Amino acid sequence: MTDEVLPSNCSARGCGQPAQWALRWNNPKIHTPDRRKTWLACDQHKESLSDFLALRSFLREVEPFTG
User: Fold this and answer.
1) Distance between CA atoms of residues 22 and 17, nearest Å
2) Domain limits, the chain
């Protein structure tokens, strides 16, 4: 598996703030259990993005983003 190259800005639509958090997720209907996709979040959008993923049972981990 190769390392994923990530942008360093928040993934929330219209937000250009630096990312502070990495939200690791997968969709169990289409991804293998060990596969992780990543959304980045600033402090302001960490909760709303996490809630969006958790509501769909996609959220797996939330970790500090060190870029």
Assistant:
1) 14
2) 21-64
Could you give the C-alpha distances from 24 to 47, 52, in angstroms and in order?
14, 13
The pair phi, psi for residue 52, each rounded to 5°, is: -60, -45
The pTM of the full predicted model, rounded to 2 decimals, is 0.84
Interatomic CA distance for residues 32 and 6, integer angstroms? 21
Residue 35 token pair: 């596969």
Residue range 4-55, pLDDT digits in tens: 665 699 999 999 999 999 999 999 999 999 999 999 999 999 999 999 999 9
Determine contact, residues 43/34, Cβ cutoff 8 Å: no
- The Cα–Cα gap between 8 and 56 comes to 25
